[in-house]
Amino acid sequence: MINHAEFTMLKEKLPDATFVNASNVMNEAVVVKEPAEIEKMRKDASIADEGMKAALRALKVGVTEAAVLGAGEKVMRELGSMWNWPVTEGDEIASGYRGGYSRCGYTPPSNKVVEEGEIVMIDLHSTYELYYSDLAYNVVMGRANSEQKKMIETFVELSLDNISPGVTVGEVAQKVVDKLSKTEYAPHTPPVFGHGIGIVGHEWYPPITIFEPWTSYKFKEGMVEELYLQINKPGVGR
Description:
Elements: H1 4-13, H2 23-30, H3 35-58, H4 65-78, E1 92-95, E2 119-124, E3 127-128, E4 131-132, E5 135-140, H5 146-157, H6 169-180, E6 194-196, E7 225-227
Antiparallel strand pairs: 1-2, 2-5, 3-4, 6-7
């Protein structure tokens, strides 16, 4: 991938060259993973598991978001994680009101202090030998109130469970949208329910959404997808 400034420079230096957008070619070339690639991703997923355990151990009322995330990142680095993916500029955490922005898909850490009664979302992205992993947890600090319980139960009911080779992205996404449209959370939920994950630079293809050109795209044997569902309602997470 090159940015516009690089593209402009190349055109100036190579005036007789013809440039062709090959991103779709590259996306399709890597979308089905080799067994050795999947093994690297399993290793990476185990690193994210350990990072999450460390973050959860550090998660307490009165601790800052940055400190919680730092505890998880430290363990992942020690286990071989090379860096955090660039899509969201790194790992994420959101406590209370920071996790309740309508259709918010990116929450870098802040120095906000975690408080009693809040919902805390932790999202880790380790990278092992240039392969990504993605793991997110939600935690209630104390006992969930009635509104929080309702949102949690809805989240479980909306879980994606019909992905298999030959099924289209649109079929999977529409099933979630149909259920979601009957709830009060639809206006606050991003209409993307997952994406491909793999080697650095090709971690998004294909996204699970109801928008073209993805609806007719069929899942294939050997693809690796990250499932994503972010439902919220401002004020519920406190």
